[in-house]
Amino acid sequence: MSDRTQLAVGRHKVPMPRLMKRSLQIVIAAALTAAVVLFVMMLNGFLVGRGGSLGGIDVWLAFIKRSDIIGTIILTALVTTAFLYWQRDKEGR
User: Fold this and answer.
1) By the 8 A CB rule, do 48 and 37 touch?
2) pTM above 0.70, yes or no
């Protein structure tokens, strides 16, 4: 098994070590999760109308700065990425 792989970025394929690719995928998944939470909180602030949608940003910042929330997001991304690679390896046999 090769120690290098490729990460597809748009139309380009960037060669990189396997560990770096998986780490980057985990960081991207964590960032997407934080972005979805921001969207939900801003939408909630807009619909409730108490603080407007900008009030959702303040709530999100207080929420996302908690270490247990960051840990949960990263752990979820890590487990999901590991499971998907494990499942893909099992299907190839």
Assistant:
1) no
2) yes
